[in-house]
Amino acid sequence: MTAPARPSGAVLGLGMIGRHHARILQSHPDLRFAGAVDPTGDRYGAVHDPSRLFGTLDELLEHDRPDFAVVAVPTEEHLPAVRALAAAGVHVLVEKPLAASGAQARELIAVVRDAGLRGAVGHVERCNPALLDLRRRLRAGQLGDVFSITTTRVGPFPDRIRDVGVVKDLATHDLDIVRWIGGAPVQRVSAEVEHRAGREHEDLVLAVGRLTSGTTFACTVDWLSPAKVRRTRVLGERGMLVADTLAADLTFHANGEASTDWAPIQQFRGVSEGDTTHYALERREPLLVELETFAAFAMGDDEAEVVTLEEGLEAVAVAEAALDSAQRGETVQCGP
Ligand SMILES: NC(=O)c1ccc[n+]([C@@H]2O[C@H](COP(=O)([O-])OP(=O)(O)OC[C@H]3O[C@@H](n4cnc5c(N)ncnc54)[C@H](O)[C@@H]3O)[C@@H](O)[C@H]2O)c1
């Protein structure tokens, strides 16, 4: 069977993130927008043609069966949405986190596999130009031996998230980044959480751990900060790379070669502070790159670098290990 000239995509859930998927699908020259489903309507006015807006998936399918669908419903709803799409033979790009629990994530993977369909997870940070370039530089050996990967993802609470806490909703980004950048699975994790804003789930986590490669990591993630920060810092033998994924900026702080005999400077700044380089990057919208890549994958391109469902499960499983660690006050081993 030959792939359609313009793969068609639908969006389930026209909320905060679904509206952006809909925007891109409607404007991309190589993709076709089949429609969007949201029982509460189109609160952000994302769909241009009202005849492409549906209250149920069945209504959409009666109108037009898409090649793939983006699952952008609340996390607890991912599994039922994927079940319904798989029954209709539609490939799925599932927003992160893959599911609300490891058990649901495993079931979701089985549903997609048993239907003979293709699926991937929307860990959109992997399409951020700053992180892509950081990873490329690490692989090329720019830092030499990597000592640690630390991430910061903090900001105010997005009022809409009710079904999961900050560990599953936000820290899954970081746990995926750490694993992807570090190139090895998480071996163990230790975490502390806080519940400070009166919600059922935790709103702050400090997680530290080690990858099976030996690299250490630390993630600071919360919904309690008055300013939004999205930063990944990799420290290695020859210096430090810092990615700001809000601005898509990447900076390299090299270890200095020069030494000084000026004692106060030596003491205060350290002798190894070297040149700082701010890289000029080609900046494409990460969500657009994610959709293009997934559409190619869904249409049979095995080279398309999507985040696999198994990688999505891994992030959820490590998030659960972090919650377990926080509850038990112990370091938790993360096995396969
Ligand atoms: N990749 C990212 O950076 C990113 C950013 C935000 C959210 N997300 C993820 O996307 C998902 C949605 O988050 P959000 O912030 O957009 O939530 P949201 O609450 O803003 O939107 C969810 C929408 O889904 C609709 N919905 C509920 N059940 C549905 C169903 N069965 N069929 C169709 N629509 C349904 C709701 O009416 C709502 O409009 C979550 O899993 C979240 O973790 C990812």
Walk me through this protein's architecture.
The protein has helices spanning 18-27, 57-63, 78-87, 102-114, 129-139, 166-182, 263-269, 286-298, 309-328, and strands spanning 8-12, 32-37, 53-54, 68-71, 91-95, 119-122, 146-154, 186-194, 204-211, 216-222, 229-236, 239-244, 249-255, 273-278, 332-333. By secondary structure, it is of the alpha/beta class. The protein folds into two domains: 8-125 and 287-306, Rossmann fold (3-Layer(aba) Sandwich), CATH 3.40.50; 127-284 and 316-333, 2-Layer Sandwich (Dihydrodipicolinate Reductase, domain 2). Strands 14-13-12-11-7-10-9-8-15 form a nine-stranded mixed beta sheet. Strand 9 and strand 10 (216-222) form a beta hairpin. Helix 3 packs parallel to helix 4 (102-114), helix 4 (102-114) runs antiparallel to helix 9 (309-328) and helix 6 (166-182) packs across helix 9. The protein starts with 7 loop residues before the first strand and ends with a strand. 44% of the residues are buried. The structure holds nicotinamide-adenine-dinucleotide (NAD). Nicotinamide-adenine-dinucleotide binds next to loops.
